[in-house]
Structure formats: C-alpha cells, structure tokens
Design goal:
Blueprint: H1 9-44, H2 50-78, H3 84-116, H4 118-124, H5 127-147, H6 149-155, H7 169-198, H8 205-245, H9 251-266, H10 268-285, H11 290-302, H12 309-317
Helix pairs in contact: 1-2, 1-9, 1-10, 2-3, 2-5, 2-10, 3-4, 3-5, 3-7, 7-8, 8-9, 8-10
Length: 322
C-alpha cells in the first residue's frame, strides 16, 4: 500500500516538543533513581527473595530504556534512516517495555501464589525459579528483536515510526500477548490478593497496619500499570484499525495519540523507582508478621483434624509473604 501523505507538521512539531518536555524530567529523575534502586536491591538487601529477583530485572529493563531514550528523541525528530545504529537502539528500546510489562505480571502472579496458595508456595516459588523465568524471557525477547526489524527494513523508510498504512498483524499479536493478556492477569491477581488480605485474621494493630500497607502497595502497582501502558496499547489497536480501513484522514491524529501515549508508557521507568522503595520496605517489615504466624501454625497442627481444609488454608495464608 502507498504511504498516506499530508501529515500535519504542526501536530508533529507539537508532539516532538511534548516528548522533550516529558523525557528531560524522566531522564533527570530516572537515571539516579534507578541507580539507587539497583544499589538497594543488589547490595543493601541481603536476603534473596522472588520479589528481589524480579525487581533487579525490572531495574535493568528500565535502565536500558533510559539509555535508549536520547537516541529515540533524536531519531524521531530528524527522521533518522534505518541503519546499524538504528537497529541496535530500536532493539534495546522494544525489548525493555515488553520486559517491564512481563516482570510486573510475574510479580503479581508471585504475590497471588504466596497469598492464595501458601501450602504450595514453597514448591512453586523460589529465587532460582524466578531468575530462570526472567532469563528465559530475556532470551525470547532478544531473539524476537533480531527477527522483528527485518519487517520494517522492507516496508519503512525511517528508523522509528510507521509511515505506511500496511496493516501490521504483528502489532496486534504483540498487543494481545504482550499486554492485554498480562493486563487481565495483573488485574485478576491483584484483586484476589487484596480480597485475601482483607480477610486475614486481625492479630493486633501492628499486623493490621502491615496488611493495610500491603493492600496499598498492590493497589498502587495496579494503577500505575494500567495508567502507564493502557493508552499506548489501545492506540496501537486504533492504528491497526486505521490501516485496515485505509483511513488516511485519521492517520495524523492516531499517530500523535500514539506518540503521546508512548510518553506516558516511558514514564513508567521513573514511577517504578518509587515502587522499588515500597518493595524494599516490604522486605524489611512483612517478616515481622511471621512470629505470630508460627504460633498460629502450631495451633492449626493441634486441631488439624477438627478443622476444614478451607479454614486451614485461610489461617496459614496470613503467614505467607508478598
């Protein structure tokens, strides 16, 4: 298909200006915050947990994204052609956003297993298993990044941005597999975790405070995930619909919407850093719940035969960490 012409230069210049306004603070805050986060999770926290493994990988993904952002700004402003530098930066850029989405999804699943299935958590969860899953995801995304650019080399002229109106079915596939399925998973797991936490036995004001803090952490993570990534992937679906319909008159508006939504999505690499802080506090504070849990477990073992399986699971759930 031919390219749509007549894109509004005014809209495009405004989009570039918006990117500069957004990305300069993102780089200024994101770089030091991610360096601090990396130091905290690699050096300051001594106990290896599943969440620590996921957070280190999330920090690495966000750091690579921050590294690529200056090149992305330059490539989009000056319509940089496709060359070796373009392929390298584009691979780095397109690896790390899906990786961030998948790691956040893994964190939600891990919390869900720890809270909902405490009896099986020791079998299903371990730092080594978390590291293996993350390593597998990195390998899959790196391989995909080397295969995916070949499509753009044949059909696109510039490094970043889709100029043709040829429908990209890979865009739909990546949206469904890379976001909408993880989105449903994160929402389900987060809602279930919040419900389980609210049903926990109240052993005193300290435990109640920790449980309330855990609910806040899960809720904030869910909101950040939805607010940052949903606009981008919804806009990608709209772009696909415009390409299928051949609606050139809508192309400029959709492209501008996509670039604006990309700005929101890239802000996640800064917002994650604030979540790192709460996660670090989580490591230090939630284990204080365990002494009370141990006494509860002994009571459960004494009356195991007289209690229903559901009651046993709900009681032992209060002993699992997030």
């Amino acid at each position: 298909m031919e390219n749509c012409t007549g894109n509004s230069n005014v809209l495009w210049n405004g989009t570039v200006l918006l990117q500069l306004i957004v990305y300069i603070p993102v780089l200024s805050l994101g770089i030091p915050l991610n360096l601090i986060a990396f130091w905290v999770f690699c050096c300051k926290i001594k106990r290896w947990t599943e969440t620590r493994v996921y957070m280190i990988n999330l920090t690495v993904a966000d750091s690579f994204l921050l590294f690529a952002l200056p090149f992305v700004i330059y490539f989009q402003k000056y319509n940089h052609p496709i060359d070796k530098l373009c392929l390298i930066i584009r691979s780095i850029y397109f690896i790390n956003m899906p990786m961030s989405v998948l790691i956040i999804t893994l964190i939600a699943i891990d919390r869900y297993i720890a809270i909902k299935f405490p009896l099986k958590a020791k079998i299903l969860r371990s730092p080594l298993k978390s590291a293996s899953i993350c390593g597998f995801l990195w390998i899959v995304l790196v391989i995909n990044s080397y295969l995916h650019p070949q499509f753009y080399e044949r059909s696109e002229q510039f490094c970043l941005g889709k100029q043709s109106i040829q429908p990209s079915y890979s865009m739909i596939l990546s949206s469904v597999l890379g976001y909408f399925i993880p989105l449903g998973t994160v929402i389900f797991c987060s809602v279930q975790v919040i419900k389980c936490l609210k049903k926990k036995i109240d052993n005193g004001p300290h435990e109640r405070k920790l449980i309330q803090k855990a609910i806040h952490i899960v809720s904030v993570n869910l909101c950040v995930f939805i607010i940052c990534f949903s606009p981008l992937y919804i806009t990608m679906i709209l772009r696909f619909a415009v390409d299928v319909a051949g609606a050139c008159s809508l192309l400029s508006a959709v492209n501008v919407s996509m670039h604006v939504s990309v700005c929101f999505a890239n802000c996640n690499c800064c917002l994650d850093a604030f979540c790192y802080y709460f996660a670090a506090k989580e490591f230090q504070e939630f284990p204080s719940l365990f002494p009370a849990c141990m006494s509860m477990k002994s009571k459960v073992n004494q009356s195991k035969e007289s209690q229903s399986p559901t009651h046993q699971v709900m009681t032992q759930t209060s002993c699992s960490n997030l």
